[in-house]
Amino acid sequence: MRRDKGVSCVTVKAEIHIGMEQxxxxxxxxxxxxxxxxxxxxxxxxxxxxxxxxxxxxxxxLIEEAIAPWNVGRIRVRVRYSRGAxxxxxxxxxxxxxxxxxxxxxxxxxxxxxNLGRVRSFATHWQRPIYQLVLNAPYQLVYFIFLHELFHLLxxxxxxxxxxxxxxxxxxxxxxLVDGHGVVVTTKEGMLVPxxxxxxxxxxxxxxxxxxxxxxxxxxxxxxxxxxxxG
Length: 231
Ligand SMILES: [Zn+2]
Known about the structure:
Blueprint: H1 2-5, E1 6-9, H2 20-24, E2 46-50, H3 56-67, E3 75-81, E4 87-92, E5 97-102, E6 110-114, E7 120-121, E8 126-127, E9 131-135, H4 138-157, H5 166-180, E10 184-187, H6 203-206, H7 219-230
Parallel strand pairs: 2-3, 3-5
Antiparallel strand pairs: 1-4, 4-5, 6-9, 7-8, 9-10
Helix pairs in contact: 3-4, 4-5
The structure holds zinc ion.
Residues 7, 9, 148, 152, 166, 169 line the site of zinc ion (ZN).
């Protein structure tokens, strides 16, 4: 079964991504500040390869900080261009491998359709409102996909049921982008969505069994964890 091997995700895409407006702008040249920077050595805590133009020097600190509190071992991370899809992500549980595939054609700001919304029940059906994350740069989409897949890995590491966790994964990832990267959550019409409409689950507690005990984390990482807890 797929859930034993891993999970492959193509997070919900809003209609806007396949609209004519997007197609017309596929040719737009990537901004100069996205030109690839010199390679940086990956931390021993991970085996990292990135073949996109998003800078390693941007991605590595983010990923290092994200995995620091968690007992995920030495993960393997591969960031590359998709073969045409806007993006996708995959988490292979057995060898702790996360793949992030980024569309080369995307332009930013990019409105990412998500599973953040709370499912509502109506007389005849269930419905989840489509909330969008307004991402301002390619690194933010890579970071979002990575965090989404990391949460799948944390669920598995914590020995929780791994099925149907897309909304939790999106919420885990969205928190980091909203808190630290100036990303906003909006409705399809562009109206800002209040935080409590999507950030209402105790995600940390759900995967608490995957957390490294504070005393076991090397000093710099521990300081980071404490700072984050206070912040
Ligand atoms: Zn997923």
